[in-house]
Design brief:
Blueprint: H1 2-20, E1 34-42, E2 51-60, H2 65-68, E3 69-79, E4 85-92, E5 98-100, E6 109-116, H3 121-124, H4 138-141, H5 146-149, H6 153-161, H7 169-175, E7 178-186, E8 194-202, H8 205-210, E9 225-234, E10 250-257, E11 273-276, E12 280-288, E13 294-296, E14 302-304, E15 306-315, H9 317-320, E16 330-331, E17 336-339, E18 343-349, E19 358-368, E20 378-390
Parallel strand pairs: 11-20
Antiparallel strand pairs: 1-2, 2-6, 3-4, 3-7, 5-6, 7-8, 9-10, 9-12, 12-18, 13-14, 15-17, 15-19, 16-18, 19-20
């Protein structure tokens, strides 16, 4: 019994030691790991017959993208009212798409495909059966006239494609939105295969707007970053910026400013240097252009988007060699956050080892509107680089 107890204690010690030596975090991207930064779809809101460009951006470990990843696509995906997804069939992406040469930055690796969306994708998708009313609760159908509810799936699609739009069609377009699925299967020698799945949605909104139906909302990718800056604030271990404090002492180190606004900031260019000094706290602050994208409700209201921010970073591996990860910079645990405003802040802790100076940050901004069925998601990725200097 004592021997068994000693083995259990030894195993627990190994587990604890293993946790202590775990060298990565969600926010930090090490050069030994291949990490996805973002899947971006252009346009964000596509209709049957459109061509969508998918751009996948990766950071961290450098790999041969041609042999490392197998790409698959399914145009026939079922998503039920509870969010459960079933892929009915899938094919290699290159059977239907064209791979295109592109790059995002010298610090990343990028794969892009130009994907034609089938003209008949909504008609053929198993996510909408011919008796389409069977998959929706009565509350989702109550706004639709009885004579429309009696129409078949094909008859409804004929009405939409023919531009026979009525006041209730904004909700109707949600019911006739269909999902697609992109799958990236990564194969690394000596490791279990890893799979990344990305879902997107196809609907008729964009086509109808091009036909002149301006009251139909479409979703766009976020339009741009106004600035990304680091604020240095007197006081140790502060968790937030108190802008209402008249005694607040703030020093500003901009990492990115929209070029046309440089003069407004009193700058000709950016040096992207953050001065590190004891007795201060640091915050990353970013501001994006506020989007006018919205969901139009049946009672005439507009529900505007909210934003999801995600900040990740990497150091120069030549500077961090032999240095324990606990001495690297870190970003506050709120690096993923939903906000209703277009400005966001997160605490930053500079490296405690002064040999570490260089960094790269990637900011991903996604947007969403709640309570809209299968809304296509837009996203924006921004990279900034800089260095710390120590006083």
């Amino acid at each position: 019994m004592k021997k068994i107890l000693r083995l259990i204690i030894a195993a627990a010690a190994l587990i604890i030691a293993g946790c202590d030596d775990f060298t990565t975090s969600y926010e930090r991207i090490d050069d030994s790991e291949f990490r996805l930064l973002d899947f971006m779809y252009l346009p964000a809101d596509a209709s049957p017959g459109d061509t969508v460009t998918l751009m996948a951006v990766f950071a961290g470990k450098k790999v041969d993208l041609n042999s490392y990843i197998d790409w698959w696509i399914s145009f026939n995906v079922i998503t039920d009212l509870f969010g459960n997804t079933t892929v009915v069939d899938s094919v290699p992406l290159l059977q239907v798409a064209q791979r295109i040469d592109t790059s995002f930055s010298p610090n990343t690796q990028t794969v892009a495909f130009r994907i034609p969306i089938p003209e008949d994708i909504v008609r053929n998708s198993a996510s909408i059966p011919d008796r389409w009313t069977d998959i929706f609760p009565p509350s989702a159908l109550s706004f639709i006239p009885e004579q429309v509810r009696s129409l078949s799936k094909s008859e409804i699609i004929d009405r939409i494609e023919g531009g026979h739009i009525r006041y209730w069609d904004q909700r109707m377009l949600q019911l006739f939105t269909v999902p697609i699925r992109i799958t990236a299967k990564m194969h690394e020698p000596g490791r279990m295969p890893h799979t990344i799945r990305s879902s997107h949605s196809i609907r008729y909104n964009n086509r109808l707007v091009s036909m002149g139906f301006d009251h139909i909302p479409i979703n766009n990718n976020p339009s741009g970053i106004e600035f990304i800056t680091v604020y240095k604030v007197r006081g140790k271990n502060l968790t937030s910026l108190n802008w209402g404090d008249d005694n607040l002492e703030v020093e500003n180190f901009p990492l990115y400013v929209r070029p046309e606004n440089l003069l407004y900031w009193g700058l000709d260019s950016l040096d992207r240097v953050i001065e590190v000094e004891d007795g201060y706290s640091y915050f990353v602050l970013t501001h994006i252009n506020h989007s006018d994208d919205y969901l139009g409700t049946m009672d005439g209201y507009r529900v505007f988007e909210q934003y999801i921010f995600n900040l990740q970073y990497a150091h120069n591996p030549q500077e961090t060699a032999g240095i324990h990860h606990s001495r690297f910079m870190s970003i506050g645990s709120s690096s993923v956050m939903r906000v209703l405003t277009s400005t966001w802040e997160v605490p930053l802790t500079p490296p405690s080892d002064r040999r570490i100076t260089d960094f790269t940050m990637w900011l991903t901004v996604r947007e969403e509107v709640m309570n809209e069925r299968l809304r296509p998601e837009g996203s924006l990725l921004m990279e900034v680089t800089g260095r710390f200097v120590y006083k």
